[in-house]
Write a structure and sequence with these properties.
By secondary structure, the protein is mostly helical. Helix content is 44%, strand content 3%. The longest helix is centred in the first third of the chain and has 22 residues.
Length: 515
């Protein structure tokens, strides 16, 4: 944590705060940001865009591990992705910024959280409570992702570098508990916020345009997500106190057509395109940009063998199909192909299908209506929410078809749900747990490319679905990792605190909710 990297904007502020007044009297640059100039409305668009970008583009590894994507035939083996032999540098840009030498760096969660923290501090100073509430929501998202990958992480001391240059680690469960409290505060602030004393919120809020009701719906949906994560800890005991708070708020959840998405003004220009489109389909010149990620045969088979048309929206037809029977072509994860004549990237299906990458200027989803409805369906089946669990399940699956832009979506979803196949039939699921597993399976089928990370969460939480292991010859009996290893930077600069967490093994060490 000592060498936590800041965004360019925040770094300038940080440096300015540490220099003498006389220095700036001599070298007054009106174009350089100062702490005084860093108002909440200037920080919020960047924070929201960075959060959505992170969630949409950072979890390729989960997509591969969970049977969504696989390496194309144009590439050789990719380890440790495929043999699960994780290192302390693997995926470290979750923690510290990566690619800092390029114009478009990979932003870490701690970097995003630091900027959100500055925004919150500035908003508290000026009593702009709407911005304070948004910062708390971002905190709940960012730290949730960190805990879900590392378990215990720096939290209470993490962003206060003036006092804690080597911050201590907090328990993952304790962090989750506090994140729920942060969301309680956010809900109260949104309910009482006066938009007029939050200048610029309509423009700075590139997600909801200052709509407090939509933010309250997102708060409740994020609350439910944190609770569902802990389902196996709660067991048969509903988290009644938290559920009562959601009910008392009265705003409900994100519903059909209410995806939380951002658009700061995406354009067909360098570094200005929709992040998902720009990462997995084409750059601003129209050049195909991703030849590595391709459809995984496991997911493709689940779609095609069960009359599920969504594969045509999640994946693209091969640019140069081998035959009319191979318009959609995938690979087995970890398979080592030694035949130079076998299918390559151009012969296989890209992962940015027409239901996902609609245009370079489309909004970037942050929390979709699809995921929200599946969370509600599971909570209803568990008896946490009132309502008909079967209907909630139908609504969630149908929303997936609608969200992807499937032609005649409602009819296609109805036909799909009418099947007697166990992968889709509600009546075929006998026990309550079978129905929960069915909801999780359909959630898995609904979120490829949209939120790859959720599949890894549900796999660890419920063991659903039973995805195949990598075929890598160097896997050596290892199974899908249960967590990431702490980054090498922590061992280098915060050694005493990270070593206090004990010996971490990605094969045996778990996050607190993984029972």
């Amino acid at each position: 944590m000592k060498n936590l990297k800041y965004s360019f904007l925040f770094l300038l502020v940080f440096l300015a705060a540490g220099c003498s007044d006389s220095f700036f009297d001599i070298n007054d640059n009106p174009n350089s940001p100062t702490d005084e100039a860093m108002q909440p409305n200037l920080l919020l668009p960047s924070v929201l865009n960075a959060t959505a970008t992170k969630m949409a583009t950072s979890y390729d590894y989960a997509a591969h591990w969970m049977g969504y994507w696989a390496r194309s035939g144009s590439y050789g083996p990719s380890n440790p992705l495929e043999n699960y032999d994780l290192t302390t540098t693997y995926e470290q840009d979750e923690w510290v910024n990566g690619n800092t030498t390029v114009t478009y760096p990979t932003v870490s969660w701690y970097n995003i959280l630091m900027d959100a923290n500055v925004m919150e501090r500035k908003a508290i100073e000026t009593e702009q409570t709407f911005y304070v509430a948004i910062a708390k929501v971002i905190r709940s998202i960012g730290y949730m992702y960190l805990v879900d990958q590392y378990n215990n992480v720096p939290y209470t001391q993490a962003l206060n570098l003036s006092e804690f240059i080597s911050p201590a680690y907090d328990n993952g469960q304790d962090i989750y508990n506090d994140l729920l409290l942060q969301l309680d505060e956010a809900a109260s602030l949104f309910a009482s916020a006066d938009v007029l004393v939050n200048p610029g919120i309509e423009d700075a809020d590139i997600m909801f345009g200052g709509d407090a009701l939509m933010w309250r719906k997102l708060v409740n949906t994020q609350r439910l997500k944190l609770l569902i994560r802990q389902s196996e800890i709660f067991g048969t005991t509903a988290p009644s106190e938290q559920l009562s708070k959601i009910q008392a708020d009265g705003s409900g959840f994100l519903m059909s057509g209410e995806t939380a998405e951002v658009n700061p003004g995406y354009a067909v220009d360098e570094y200005k395109q929709n992040p998902f489109y720009n990462t997995y389909l084409r750059d601003h010149t129209g050049t195909l940009i991703d030849n590595f990620n391709r459809a995984n045969n496991y997911l493709l088979g689940l779609f095609m063998n069960n009359n599920d048309i969504r594969y045509q929206y999640v994946f693209n037809e091969a640019r140069d199909p081998l035959s009319e029977d191979d318009l959609y072509f995938g690979y087995d994860f970890g398979f080592v192909d030694l035949d130079p004549d076998n299918p390559k990237a151009v012969n296989s299906s890209e992962v940015a299908g027409p239901g996902l990458a609609k245009s370079a200027t489309q909004p970037q989803w942050l929390f979709t209506s699809v995921e929200s409805l599946f969370l509600q369906a599971e909570a209803t089946q568990r008896g946490w929410l009132n309502g008909d669990a079967h209907q909630a399940y139908i609504d969630a699956v149908t929303e997936s078809f609608i969200w992807l832009g499937v032609e005649n979506a409602a009819d296609e979803a109805e036909d799909y749900l009418a099947q007697s196949r166990s992968i889709v039939s509600w009546s075929a699921a006998g026990s309550d747990q079978d129905k929960i597993n069915l909801i999780a399976t359909q959630k898995y089928l609904a979120l490829p490319g949209i939120n790859n990370f959720e599949a890894w969460v549900d796999y660890r939480r419920l063991g659903v679905p039973n995805v195949p292991l990598s075929l890598s010859p160097s896997r050596n009996g290892r199974h899908i990792p249960l967590r990431l290893l702490y980054p090498q930077n922590e061992y280098d600069y915060n050694g005493a605190n990270v070593e206090a967490q004990g010996t971490i093994d990605a094969q045996t060490s778990t996050v607190f909710w993984d029972k």
